[in-house]
Write a structure and sequence with these properties.
Elements: H1 3-18, E1 27-28, H2 49-52, E2 70-75, E3 80-87, E4 100-101, E5 111-112, E6 116-121, E7 127-135, H3 141-149, E8 171-179, E9 185-192, E10 201-211, E11 214-216, E12 239-243
Antiparallel strand pairs: 1-2, 2-3, 3-10, 4-5, 6-7, 7-8, 8-9, 9-12, 10-11
């Protein structure tokens, strides 16, 4: 399909959405990149949102007012959320969300320590493309926290690149693509990875939010940990057509 015909098709989708004939914008990249450490999830007695719900807590605690994830999508009420989970065979936890420093951990305040890129998206989100750079070695969570804590405000930040984890290009280029043929369907491609074949394990996380004070969570091995990671196997095909009900 050439650029002109695709542009015309997207204009048609936009018109259908404006007129209420098709809810093309019902599903999109509305899922938060980070729900941990936010005031929305803070029920502390002293208003310390960063320490009340940390990145580490997010492994085993349920959010109350939202969800987060890598390359995530949801409906416009965020009742049903989809996101990507990864495991490189070395991390102690599944890579399900962005990692970063809290306000007290960073020498310049809060800061995400990841490399990810939103490459493309149509106005109706009928097509979206995302890239995440996932290290093949164990992710240096503790070294990043400890190094930044010791640096003063006048010093530069200690970044993920500074750890040497990307030396010799030892990382995965994880590409994720979404396409909607109809408003309530999606076609997902991903992840596309480089490096050691079979060394990354993709997992599709699905979260069904049933209310502001509770949720039911269904997932395809979305809570695998190091000890039970044998359950995390790549799908037989990278393409899956999933109806969004």
């Amino acid at each position: 399909m050439n650029q002109t015909s695709e542009s015309s098709a997207e204009q048609t989708r936009l018109q259908e959405d404006r007129e209420g004939r098709a809810a093309w914008k019902k599903w999109g990249p509305y899922l938060s990149e980070r729900q941990w450490g936010t005031v929305r999830e803070d029920y502390s007695s002293n208003g310390d949102a960063w320490n009340y719900f940390t990145h580490d807590h997010a492994q085993y605690r349920a959010y109350r007012w939202g969800e987060d994830g890598l390359a995530g999508i949801s409906d416009n009420r965020q009742l049903l959320c989809f996101a990507l989970g990864l495991w490189n065979g070395r991390d102690p936890i599944l890579k399900e969300r962005l990692f970063g420093l809290s306000n007290s951990e960073g020498n310049h305040g809060e800061d995400v320590k990841e490399y990810y890129f939103y490459l493309d998206s149509t106005p109706t989100h009928s097509y979206m493309k995302y890239l995440y750079k996932y290290p093949q070695a164990a992710y240096p969570y503790v070294p990043i926290i400890e190094a930044n804590r010791t640096r003063g405000k006048q010093a530069s930040e200690y970044e993920l690149l500074d750890t040497g984890i990307f030396d010799e290009d030892r990382y995965f280029d994880v590409f994720v693509e979404y396409a909607k043929v109809e408003p309530d369907h999606r076609l997902q491609s991903g992840p596309g990875a480089g490096g050691d074949p079979g060394a990354t394990h993709p997992v599709v996380s699905q979260h069904l939010v049933v209310g502001p004070q509770g949720r039911e969570t269904g997932a395809e091995d979305s809570r695998c940990r190091h000890a039970g990671a044998g359950r995390c196997r790549p799908a037989s095909s990278p393409w899956r057509a999933l109806p969004l009900l």
